[in-house]
Amino acid sequence: MAAKKLSLKDKYALLTRDLDWEFSYEERKEAFPFEEFEGIKITDWSKWEDPFRLTMDAYWKYQAEKEKKLYAIFDAFAQNNGQLNVTDPRYVNAIKIFLTAISPQEYQAHQGFAHVGRQYGGVGARVACQMQSLDELRHVQTQVHAMSQYNKYFDGFQNWSQMQDRLWYLSVPVSFFHDARSAGPFEFLVAIGFSFEYVLTNLLFVPFMSGAAYNGDMATVTFGFSAQSDEARHMTLGLEVIKFLLEQHEDNVPIVQKWIDKWFWRGTRLLTVVAMMMDYMLPNKVMSWKEAWGMYFEEAGGALFKDLARYGIRMPKFADQIEKEKEHASHQAWWTFYTYGQAAGFHTWIPTDEELDWLSEKYPETFDKYYRPRWEYAKQLEAEGKRFYNGTLLQLCSTCQLPLMFTEMDDPTLISQRETHYHGEHYHFCSDGCKEIFEEEPEKYVQSWLPVHQIYQGNCGGPDLPGILEFCGINVGNDNLDIKGSPDEQRWKQWKGVA
Amino acid sequence: MSKVYIALQDNDVSRYIVEAIEEDNPEVTIIHNPAMIRIEAEGHLVVKRETVEEKLGRDWDLQELHLNLITLGGNVDEDDDRLSLTWNV
Amino acid sequence: MPVHAYTSDYTGTVRDLAENFHGNHVVYVCWERHLLFSCPFAFLVPPQTSFRTLRDQLMAEAYGAHPQWAQIDWSQVNWSVSGAPFEPQLDKTLEEQGLDHKASLRFSTPGLDGMSGAGI
Ligand SMILES: [Fe+2]
Ligand SMILES: [Fe+2]
Ligand SMILES: [Zn+2]
Ligand SMILES: [Zn+2]
To answer: Which domains does chain A have, with CATH numbers?
Structure first.
């Protein structure tokens, strides 16, 4: 008789917990030095369990399967010149942002999980983090592969890693992950595993990727959904982490709450860029940012926080502010990038008349009142041959590093500015959320590498704009400026046989 | 009661998984988006191996679900025969 | 606690001290309700710059594209620094009137509240 197949539960026990060992000649504390300084109390690591009960053998098997499917599609995409099937060349600019702003953060996630995967005293947590670390490495690799096809035909893809280190708006995602990775292991897990993965990556990988499909981009939708299939596991890990920490000791509750407050705010700010990608950069629209936000943040996040209420956890602190911002964030962001389009690594444009109407319909409370008039004015300037570019460097937030481009939500024509002082220096912020985060740990954020200040300190090439852009890896005149008249647009017209 | 949800890539295998989910959870709502199928239910949803195998006409390991899974919401519990998603409130 | 760190007396390097700007200061300026300019500006200026130079050269160059800039009646303008009312003295330097490194100046121009009733 053949040996009986192990049940999932038994296999998980054998291949996870049974791999651990007791420390006989080293202090446990020496082996896991970072476990206590954040104030988190763990009484029993054996209570940790992966609800999917995924073991390393099954992990390799299914990940290999995913890769095979993915690369078959990449091959087909390249062989069939799939880049020609996207709706129009404007769409490709969203993918440029993806490669420069998001993919490198997959690598940071990989590094972060590899690090914490060594630091926890519990073997279940270590194994789960190890798998996640490998997933994230897979994500950056597959994304770079997928986009290498676009790199052969479009500008703006060629220097993504140099841009990531140097280009002004990319310091936003970079600093987000630096913040998380330089925190302790438990804060990292609440930041990335829970706050970011559970609610926020859904907004990036689900409605945006569905939008990529709707715009004919099979390569992106495939890597997106393939990555997201790992995210389903990451989300589940994130939720388990939170429940585990809250169940271990009541003293953990206020610490975890503080991290949730911080990281939901940081994450919301980071996703501003995705908001503008959804509302302005997809020629065929699936849903507005506001609708996606309602579905994944308010509905899915709301359900989550209702479930966590039994532990004494409440909604993230700035949820009210966040709810109001969904009406404004994408518009304020795209206007900023449009007016600084000479300093971006992708093309910008004025929405078409149909798109303006779609925005009016999706944002009946705000678009016609506050945002359409800006585009009408921009159209007028463009028609006069004076496409508007803003030539003066802008003020950045010392926490999130975004420009101070957000308004007061109750007075949407007034820019929101906040200020604090530390050791005699002024520090400026886009919001109460960012200000509070700074005030909690000023010694951390006084180190922010704010690109505008770095440019003014002479650390970023230049001092003229073309010099600074070249320093960032931008091919000046090709990668930046309006889509109208760009080499991207000209080539597209040639391929499509239109004048 | 909050909604649990699961989203699958819109492909040949998923079609049968969705059929199985519908059969085992008559109350679900199915939403088709470009390239993806989203399934929602009040409070609870279960994917049963046996039903999926019946629809597919072949053996199917529950962990194969990961190949087609996009995202989910709810507390997860998985064993050899079923994956369940639950919100307690 | 100014930081949650493993090292008990951890301090960070302050990256934006005035001394790193080669004799210059950064001064921020925000013209309220003129969102053609989506964000406040950051100007790099020697601290000995007069307020007049800041206003009539740097700001004029940065904001001049706005049709309302030329219409401003400077006697009607409300200024504030860090939320407190401020009376600029045109021929004094920024330094002399307390506009130090990373000071944040705001001004509003009553009657000129941007275009289209939308604060543009
Ligand atoms: Fe990832
Ligand atoms: Fe992830
Ligand atoms: Zn901020
Ligand atoms: Zn101050």
So the answer is: 59-349+388-496 (1.10.620.20)
